[in-house]
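REQUEST ID: PR-0412
SUBMITTED BY: lab tech R.K.
PRIORITY: routine
TASK: structure prediction, single protein chain
INPUT:
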Amino acid sequence: MKVVVLAGGTSTERDVSLTSGGMIYNALKRNGHKAILLDVYLGYEGETEDIFDRELDWSEEIGAITEKNPDLESIKALRPDGAEYFFGPNVLKLCKKADAVFMALHGANGEDGKLQACFELMGIPYTGTDFVSSAISMDKGITKDIFKAWNIPTPAGFRLQRGESEREEMTFPCIVKACCGGSSVGVCIARNEAEYAGAKQEAFKYDSEVIVEQYIEGREFSVGVMNGRALPVIEIAPKSGFYDYRNKYQAGSTIETCPAKLSVEKTKELQALAEKVFRALRLKNYARMDFMMSNSGEIFCLEANTLPGMTPTSLLPQEAAAVGISFDELCEEILSFAKSSL
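STATUS: complete
OUTPUT:
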């Protein structure tokens, strides 16, 4: 197949996306596909004729994850057209030429349904869930509303617009996070009024709306779902702090155990909840659900990730490996969803 692996972009998760894209690209090449790796924002300005049949060096496209957020202004300055449009040179042209697009994007303008809607209008097959479920899942406020309607346990909380006064009583500690963020960017734990003010200020850097919710002390888990069926549960235990951007992507900073050391009953409960979330948010292809289990054993769903990371430290590939699915096989299974929609 001719496949465009679409990565990069202008979200705070740009570096993560490029690393995911690089690994996916290499896997597809090993699987025999004619793949190219494109930064959706910077595009490609070389010769596009027979591009899928030529062996090009895409190593410059494969980024490394840094401990800090990417300098998006410097990225935008690389566009010679002044970044008038989101799509970089030849991106849509090459996506139209491909048999399918493998979505390796994370965060805004990639995971929020906008690109998915564009591709559906243009008849371009792509991996992952559709534009409606992408948009719903990206908004943590809407997601929590659906969880409540489906009786899916989730931490109590409320939404807060920039400049809006609190309408509900605040209890500490609490979690403050950007409503449509990812990779724990803009997420803070507040234990008092001063930390709460700083947490809101940080979260509002990334979104005009934030989520304030109860802090659950306990163990953190994640469960991937492939085409409606749950993978093994993985436990995430940062060596220090919580599961923030640094602990997610710096190798060795988090202890990840898969399958998680849980009773059979708790394992089944988490997997059943993950599958229920998959149905409630009308997800397709694959996704990953994040959970907290309190010290008393109560389980809470935090959110759903519609384009989970595919980096060396990402959770979904580890869960797949626990049931004997290699990274290359995982990429092929994800790609088969787009192939089936041709």
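NOTES: Residues 41 and 86 are 6 Å apart (CA to CA).
REVIEWED BY: pending
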